[in-house]
Amino acid sequence: MTDIVTALAETIGEKSVVTDHDIVSSYLTDWTGRFRGEAFCVVRPVNSKQVRDTVDLAKRFDVPLVAQGGNTGLVGGATPVKKAIILSTKLLSGIELDHDLQLAKVGAGVTLSALNAEAQKAGLKLGVDLASRDSATVGGMVATNAGGIHVIRYGGMRRQVLGIEAVLGNGRLISRMEGLEKDNSGFDWPSILCGSEGTLGVITQLTLKLVSVPRHRAVALVALHTLSAALAVMTEARRRLGGLSAMEFMTSNGIELVSNLDGAPWPFNNIPSISLLVEAAGEDDQMEKLAYFLDSLEDVVDAVMAGDSAADGLWYWRESHTLAISRKGVARKLDVSIPIRAIPAFVDDLTHLLENDYQQVKPILFGHLGDGNIHVNLLDVAEGDTGIEHRIYKMVSTYGGSISAEHGIGRAKVNELALTRSQDDIESMKSVKSALDPASVLNPGVLFV
Length: 449
Ligand SMILES: Cc1cc2nc3c(=O)[nH]c(=O)nc-3n(C[C@H](O)[C@H](O)[C@H](O)COP(=O)(O)OP(=O)(O)OC[C@H]3O[C@@H](n4cnc5c(N)ncnc54)[C@H](O)[C@@H]3O)c2cc1C
Fold this sequence. Notes:
Bound molecules: flavin-adenine dinucleotide
Shape: globular
Number of domains: 4
Number of strands: 18
Helix content: 25-40%
Distance between the termini: 32 Å
Strand content: 15-25%
CATH topology of the largest domain: Uridine Diphospho-n-acetylenolpyruvylglucosamine Reductase, domain 3
């Protein structure tokens, strides 16, 4: 009997099916190093027809199929739970810009940096930006509904998608690539597939909205004593800082780790409890506006500013967090959101929990303060300890927060979904899954148990 690998090679061509052990194994571990999987082969389709053929064969042979873009996801969603075919989207390429309408038709495997490099020639960019931009693909970003550093200004990935093409788990190809601002003819596929983490369909192409690159920007790194002071800065910035485009917070543990990378000298004499990164962007010079805004604040301990290209030097402190943490070990990564007013109380409760019951654990908290999104990274958790995350997620649910602000559920949080979703809600999501992927070949074990 023909096996799945032979059938794939016969149908979509040997060139598109990779079985070399070394190459295949480079797809089998997630970015954090926490999750590993097994695969029969890696398939690298170059068009939607090959994707469709791959999905059909996965169904026929009853083999799981896992879509993988840049493999930068932080919840293990692109790493197979059971032995699978990995469908790498990297060759689903192509960027077609409409400068006047500020739209891009893009292959799902295009990285964010590649899209922006092309868009920038016309003074445009995607409104969503993340530190993983050089590897993260637009297909993966839609599949995870990525957030990033400019949600406060442009919203998350869902708000950037005007059109989508995808092969659903039932083998059907849906294509709505026209990029219509208004189109209420039935269910909205971009919304349904956004955040579906490869469980409903393989996204092959997208029509994305672009935004103008602001001519000027200014960034301030602000030293503060408390999170409450940071929230006060945020409230004021939302009210009075017209060009506000990012509001990120960091804590002393994280700044210490980034300092150890020796990439740049820390600009203050001491490392404060809370550092806030505030960015303003617009058509006119932003430095004066930002300086005037900072001068008017009461609780600022210290601040430095940089404008335009020099601003990247200050972003370094925020963007190097994930790398600096990974250099220290395999962290437990919790990406939660908390109603904004409750953030200081939540962080106090979390600190007490760790001080009382997990003294050896080193927490590194940072995130997108403007969206109530805290990345809780825990280093030195005892191997096999599964209770710590559950206790924190329970705490998140009592605050009315979310156990996944922007990274998704993946494999990492699959057993925690019921903490913040009712049984009716989960069963209804499962009904959508079985309608679109009746044989459950797409990413089994991700999102749902
Ligand atoms: C340094 C660093 C910083 C990060 N910062 C942020 C941040 O600020 N905000 C944020 O939201 N995330 C962030 N991330 C997480 C990650 O970059 C995002 O989740 C990103 O959207 C994943 O894109 P990817 O192409 O790497 O997807 P992958 O990791 O390959 O896949 C992620 C999920 O999407 C599915 N998938 C991938 N491609 C497709 C497709 N074409 N069709 C259907 N399903 C697909 C996979 O099956 C998997 O479930 C960061 C990661 C790193 C390493």
